[in-house]
Design a protein that fits this description.
The chain is mainly α. The chain contains 14 helices and 5 strands. It folds into 2 domains: about 5-140; about 155-310, hpI Integrase, Chain A (Orthogonal Bundle), CATH 1.10.443. A hairpin with a 2-residue loop joins β3 (about 200-205) and β4 (about 205-210). The longest helix has 22 residues, at about 65-85. The chain is elongated, with a radius of gyration of 24 Å. The termini are far apart. Residues about 1-25 and about 245-250 have low confidence and may be disordered.
Length: about 325
């Protein structure tokens, strides 16, 4: 059983933060239709009873995109149906949306799912609970980050195929943003989420990314990812990556997106960055240049990446070492 370890404080006033209404009438209509016509894949018979509460909860939370609405409907419907079928409790937010209920649901019904999925579900349902009742909720410990080797060429091809096959234009732009800025410019997840369309500078056939924040810098984008970046730029929104709208989710919109759009290879922005840095090492880019474009403050930060860089032979550098042309041993 996964143990709930971290307590988050209750919001000052969960009812003093009105939801942000969609500004586009067509989007609002699509969202309302999704809520009204939603039918879960499992426990359909129970939904005749649990559906009214599910619809009330989702409308109260007021997601502002169709994709987020569908995701929220699935999560809320799963919890509400399970709670009612196992306890027959009164279907009110106060009886269903409780810290203990969410914990039990995740640790039993979702025990066969990945740690990342359970983490996201607990976090999302906790945000809903805070919005509805103001109750303190627990969170699972975030899945431990693992230092993985760079993606292989075959895996990168799979990621590219996953991106172009995503079901909506917005999802494809999000996928393109992750690949272009992660694999093509080595940005960290926090840097990717903060990139605005205006931060991309077109210089002939080149593209530069202006990275803001603590490691402010300009990074040239790898030529093979420029076409993907241009696809990400086909948006009228301020930020390239369209994140989840709940205030609670702001730190992890990329993880939420990846969990909602699984592929044959799980996309990890940190792993994309790892491969980008290793690629620079293999191209013999000077270490101080790598440190500058990667946003490192010290050359020692590059040491971890050498284990995956191509090995070199001293014979290839004898001329430079000895100063004698054609030196050999």
């Amino acid at each position: 059983m996964i143990k709930n370890t971290t307590k988050f404080p209750a919001p000052r006033s969960p009812r003093l933060q009105p939801p942000i209404a969609p500004t586009d009438v067509a989007v609002a209509k699509k969202i309302d239709d999704a809520i009204e016509n939603y039918m879960p894949i499992i426990n359909r018979a129970a939904y005749a009873t649990t559906g009214p509460l599910v619809r009330e909860v989702v409308r109260t939370v007021a997601p502002t995109t169709y994709a987020n609405t569908r995701r929220l409907l699935s999560m809320v419907a799963g919890l509400v149906s399970w709670r009612w079928m196992h306890t027959g409790c009164e279907l009110t937010p106060e009886r269903v949306f409780r810290d203990s209920t969410i914990s039990l649901y995740v640790n039993t019904v979702l025990k066969g799912h990945s740690a990342v999925y359970r983490f996201d579900t607990t976090r999302h349902l906790g945000a809903v609970t805070n919005r509805l009742t103001g109750e303190r909720t627990s969170r699972l410990t975030p899945p431990a980050a693992m230092r993985l080797a760079p993606y292989t060429s075959a895996e990168m091809a799979q990621l590219h195929s996953w991106q172009i096959a995503l079901s909506t234009a917005q999802a494809r732009r999000n996928g393109a943003t992750l690949l272009a800025l992660g694999a093509g410019a080595g940005l960290t997840p926090a840097e990717i989420i903060a990139v605005r369309a205006s931060d991309i500078v077109v210089d002939g056939d080149r593209r530069w990314v202006t990275v803001r924040g603590a490691s402010e810098r300009s990074v040239p984008v790898s030529a093979k990812w420029i076409r993907t970046l241009d696809q990400a730029l086909t948006t009228d929104e301020e930020f390239l990556f369209h994140g989840y709208e709940f205030e609670e989710y702001a730190p992890r919109p990329i993880q939420s997106f990846i969990s909602a759009h699984p592929g044959p290879v799980r996309l990890t922005p940190t792993r994309l960055r790892f491969g980008w840095i290793v690629g620079l090492l293999n191209a013999n880019v000077p270490l101080d240049v790598i440190a500058e474009v990667a946003g490192f403050t010290s050359l020692t930060s590059i040491a971890d990446y050498y284990a995956h860089a191509s090995s070199t032979n001293i014979d290839d550098y004898l001329d430079a070492i000895t100063g004698i042309s054609g030196a050999s041993r």
